[in-house]
Amino acid sequence: MTQSTTGTAAAHPLPPPKELRRLREAKSLSEEQVAAAVGVTRATVRAWETGRTSPRGRKREAYARLIGTGDADALTPGAPNKWSTDDAARAAGAPPKTAPTAGSGRDTGSGSVAAAAAPATTAPADPAASAASAASETDAEIEAGPSAAEAFDALYRHSAAALFRQTYLLTGRRGLSREAVGKAFGLAWQRWPEVAVDRDPVGWVRAAAYDHAMAPWHRFRREHRHLDPPPEAPGPRALLDAMLALPPSYRRTLLLHDGVGLGLPETAAETEASTPAAAGRLMTARAAVAERVPEFAEPSTPAEQSALLHERLGALALAQPASSLPVPELIRTCSERKAQLWTRAAIAFTVLLIGLTLIALATAPRKYEPPRSPAQQVGGVPPLGGPQKLTPQTEKLQKKLGGELVHGPARLVPRAG
């Protein structure tokens, strides 16, 4: 199996992942079309184009023929090589010598804030042994790709340090920056099916971290009420003070465009603003920083000013140690526990609501009975009126008339005298 996979990789070399995507888009092919033609899933094609996995066997041959890289002379000795040594090693099945720097998922330069992540990892001393070990994996294992936990851990190790440094430039508080990064990755793990298929998962987590770090209610928390001690050097201190003096939306726009290296449309989309509004915020933020730090007023063009801010923000971000960040396993565990806690709380509340409803139904009256008002004494009512008290003569006559009506004739004839 080792010989067959290695021989297939040598016979059908592939360019680096970014070049694979460019070639596919140049042929106007979608990921679904490539997946259907090769016989894999769309997620597998995306994994090939991001460098997480590499096609093997017949699928590699079909994939190379489909995107037009099936020439065997592309990487032969003595032929001109348009790719780097690391790309050739990746095409042959061996891991590259250095891992890509973490950041926003875009190539923004070595001095950018996005590149201020963990140091690059070196490959083992024996590349041939690593290539043989990687080639010994079965086609099924490679096509399956990494698990959700492995992909999340890779994303965390790739971008957590850079996001911590970026949020520090936004807030000036290291504790709040660590909390924001942890909250963002915890939310990403809870919504991993959504994040895993996102075009820019780092951007998804970055937006969540920025939103949490810049929430206005943090000013009422005692542990985040005051800023951390600024850098001792006067230049970085002045730059950080100028950044923190900007309004939150202007600060975020300046960091995304000049620090991280996003384009103006991407910056406007992430800050939920129109492109003209983002451009206006960017110009105003640059002018405010140049007013407080005269060094940034020296460049004659906006491009030179942006490049200088890019360099200085990257240096200021790299000065912040990110060794105190938790491991990704802890982030996943805390996120799962929190999700379980909220689920149990929702179930308990639902059971309580159902129980109270049943008790109310059991104790409620079957028909409506109007309430009886309590008896009370009423004052201020005049006495009842009526006929006057009869005199003794009138009472005698009344008795006489009553007796005659009962025992006398039917008609009473009055008599004189």
3D structure, described in words:
- The chain is mostly helical.
- Among the domains are: 97 residues, lambda repressor-like DNA-binding domains (434 Repressor (Amino-terminal Domain), Orthogonal Bundle); 170 residues, no CATH class.
- The chain has 19 helices and no strands.
- It is elongated, with a radius of gyration of 42 Å.
Question: What level of helicity do the residues show?
Answer: 55-70%
Instruction: Outline the biggest β-sheet.
Output: none
Give the topology string: H per helix, E per strand: HHHHHHHHHHHHHHHHHHH
Number of helices: 19
- Described by the principal axes of the CA atoms, the overall outline is elongated
How far apart are the first and last residues' alpha carbons, in Å? 154 Å
Rg, nearest Å: 42 Å
Number of strands: 0
Family: Belongs to the sigma-70 factor family. ECF subfamily.
GO molecular function: DNA binding; sigma factor activity
GO cellular component, one term: DNA-directed RNA polymerase complex
InterPro entries: Cro/C1-type_HTH (IPR001387), Lambda_DNA-bd_dom_sf (IPR010982), RNA_pol_sigma-70-like (IPR039425), RNA_pol_sigma_r2 (IPR013325), RNA_pol_sigma_r3/r4-like (IPR013324), WH-like_DNA-bd_sf (IPR036388)
